[in-house]
Amino acid sequence: MRLLVVSQYFWPENFRINDLVAELVRRGHQVTVLTGLPNYPDGKVFQGFRDAPTRYSHYEGAEVIRVPLMPRGQGGLRLMLNYLTFAVSASIIGLWKLSGRQFDAILAYEPSPITVGLPAAAMRAVKQAPLAFWVLDLWPETLQAIGVVRSRALLQALGKLVTFIYKRCDLILAQSKSFIPQIQKYAGTNSRVVYFPNWAESVFDMQHAVPAAEVPLKPGSFNVMFAGNIGDAQDFPAILAAAQSLKSHAHIRWLLVGDGRMARWVADEIKRRNLQDRVLMLGRHPVERMPSFFKHASALLVSLKDEPIFSMTIPGKLQSYLAAGIPVVAMLNGEGAEVVENSRSGLTCAAGDHAGLAAAVLKLSEMTDEERDTMGRNGLDVSVREFDRGTLINQLEEWMGQLKAGAISPSISRGAQ
């Protein structure tokens, strides 16, 4: 198939869409990616891209078409302009750059913002190709939950934008089962919505990974590792409160691998709380190197704030954690916590419960190696059973083929899984 992928984020930025595009090319599809200039999460266009932009025009056999945008920078206004400029640029300049090209189907990737749906809808209209829209973040609810938007009028306007985009999709992919009714609230109950979760990237080969040299060795330590975006949604105030309450337990270390808009605040808080020898910030590293960092982890931490919208979310890092075969400690509500609890792959506490997080970490540290190994194996089992990469991409490939043929099944049109 000739596939067009529309995504504001793409390689060299670290997102799961990179892995999906590479796999679709390996399966014989002709893939073109419409994206922006790489600037996530630092807010500045990557220096490597500025030095040699032509090096980033192809990825694993896929052609990459880039359009200008305003980098994220710092602050809410710059972030909104970043979203807006990509949507406008991709809709106008993107259409011009793709002039004369035909596609069998379009896939839009939406971890946030929803505005990626505007150029995707424009491509659908001009190219007369069906559109599948992969929803990994619910708007406008997420913006309200993290305090970015408080105006009721603006939230209502964003809701109308969401409806506009969803109603122009031929198939909507929901990253969690809880997302489906929420999406249908905007798209309509007759919309075609299916459950399509994340998977662990193909690079998660723990067996052959070499421990990362960036992690200082401390014999006898119990390392709680957080890997990913250091943002507002991850509730770092609660994480640092838990770390502070366990400060007297010298064997417990917290290792933060990643970067994001809250990183500077976290670094300042670590100093203010005098936690420099308990909480280590190890910076951002390519996804390909995550197994080498996970080799140092005794437990892997996943967290989201105590907001109703986040209880519907399965954080993307959870699938990678499960595939690593390491116990998970989850400060979550809802569907993500249920995955950990039902699979017995770790310990959970309520979102925002720093005392519960501290208790769970301490309990894990006091378990035997055999008990923790059993949790790790349980995580591997559920990873293979529910989040297998090959099985999920097979299903996506089938749906995209049905879209091309105009033969989406009736079961999908009812929002079945």
How would you briefly describe this protein structure?
With 417 residues, the protein is of the alpha/beta class.
Question: What topology emerges from the helices and strands here?
Answer:
Elements: E1 2-6, H1 16-26, E2 30-35, H2 47-51, E3 58-59, E4 62-66, H3 76-97, E5 105-110, H4 117-127, E6 131-135, H5 141-145, H6 152-166, E7 171-174, H7 179-187, E8 193-195, E9 222-227, H8 236-245, E10 252-257, H9 263-272, E11 279-281, H10 290-294, E12 299-303, H11 316-324, E13 328-331, H12 335-343, E14 346-349, H13 354-366, H14 369-386, H15 389-405, H16 410-413
Parallel strand pairs: 1-2, 1-5, 2-4, 5-6, 6-7, 7-8, 9-10, 9-12, 10-11, 12-13, 13-14
Antiparallel strand pairs: 3-4
Write structural notes for this entry:
There is one protein chain. The chain has an 8-stranded mixed sheet with strand order 3-4-2-1-5-6-7-8, with helices on both faces. It has a 6-stranded parallel sheet with strand order 11-10-9-12-13-14, with helices on both faces. It has 417 residues and is an alpha/beta fold. α11 (316-324) links the parallel β12 (299-303) and β13 (328-331). Helices cover 41% and strands 15% of the residues. The protein contains 16 helices and 14 strands. It starts with a strand and ends with a helix. It has 2 domains: 2-199 and 388-413, Rossmann fold (3-Layer(aba) Sandwich); 206-386, Glycogen Phosphorylase B (Rossmann fold). The protein is globular. The protein has helices at 16-26, 47-51, 76-97, 117-127, 141-145, 152-166, 179-187, 236-245, 263-272, 290-294, 316-324, 335-343, 354-366, 369-386, 389-405, 410-413, and strands at 2-6, 30-35, 58-59, 62-66, 105-110, 131-135, 171-174, 193-195, 222-227, 252-257, 279-281, 299-303, 328-331, 346-349.
